[in-house]
Amino acid sequence: MSHLHLVDGAVPFLWWILGYILTIGILMFAVTKIKKEELSKKIPFVGVISALMLITMSVPLGFLPFHLNLTVLVGILGGPWIGFVAVFIVNLILAMIGHGGITVVGLNTLVIGTEVIAGYFIFKAIIKHIKPITAAAVAVVITLLISTTLMASIVMLTNTGLEYALPHSEEVHESEHDVHDELHEHEELEEQLADIHIFVLSGWGAVIAILLTGIVLEALVTSLIIGFFMKVRPEMIIGNAELRMQN
Average of pLDDT values for 141-170? Predict the structure, then answer.
């Protein structure tokens, strides 16, 4: 759900360069943490999940102006480091097909990669105390709150217009050419908010409703998928050692 829908030129040079530097640093660290035997076992499956993540991140959910990410699911199934690499690849592909600019790939990888890493560790921390399906839902909620806060912080720090960061809002987004032509002619925040509508709400009420609805749907879908894997391949969710302890 958390994804900066920004065209090239919307973010100042210093910020997107910093985003790439931090992303490359984490990617290098991730590569050192991935064992060869782990990679050979999990990369085919994570490739399938990454393809699913690519589809869900590029298609809005009908009249609701957001998309699913499934990043916490990828983190749980593939681990935080393979998951982070997958997120970078997905963001790069999305940028190449016009879903955001190439210059924002680094920042988007940091935001969405946070969901993979935080989701994995939160899930592993609480699964010892509650059921996997519930743990997955809790991990998604906490993780999306963290990533959404990070996304909002980037928008504010880079002085980017609110309308360019909201996901798939047809009422708010202009064409990329129009956005590029008017990057330096942003309206006041109140005017931007007035253009955001969902159901009977507008302004900040609409923004909060969009975010909460997205969080609930992401948590629901992730929990359902985790529940399915717990029935057919539970060791992929909680590991063989934890599975033996539960039995």
Answer: 72
* pTM for this model (two decimals): 0.78
Nearest-CA neighbor of 138 among 82, 80, 222? 222
**185-203 pLDDT per residue, tens:** 444 444 444 555 554 445 4
CB of 15 closer than 8 Å to CB of 107? yes
- Hey, what domains does the chain have and what are their CATH numbers? 13-246 (1.10.1760.20)
Residue 227, Cβ density class (10 Å: 0-12 exposed, 13-18 middle, ≥19 buried): middle
Q: Which among 54, 132, 47, 42 has a CA at the least distance from the CA of 91?
A: 54
Nearest to 243 by CA among 232, 234, 224: 234
**How many C-alpha atoms does 95 have within 13 Å on its Cβ side?**
20
Q: What HEC string does the chain produce?
A: CCCCCCCCCCCCHHHHHHHHHHHHHHHHHHHHHCCHHHHHHHHHHHHHHHHHHHHHHHCCECCECCCCCCHHHHHHHHCHHHHHHHHHHHHHHHHHCCCCCHHHHHHHHHHHHHHHHHHHHHHHHHCCCCCHHHHHHHHHHHHHHHHHHHHHHHHHHCCCCHHHCCCCCCCCCCCHHHHHHCCCCCCCHHHHHHCCEECCEECHHHHHHHHHHHHHHHHHHHHHHHHHHHHHCCHHHHHHHHHHHHC
Q: Tokens standing for 7?
A: 């065209």
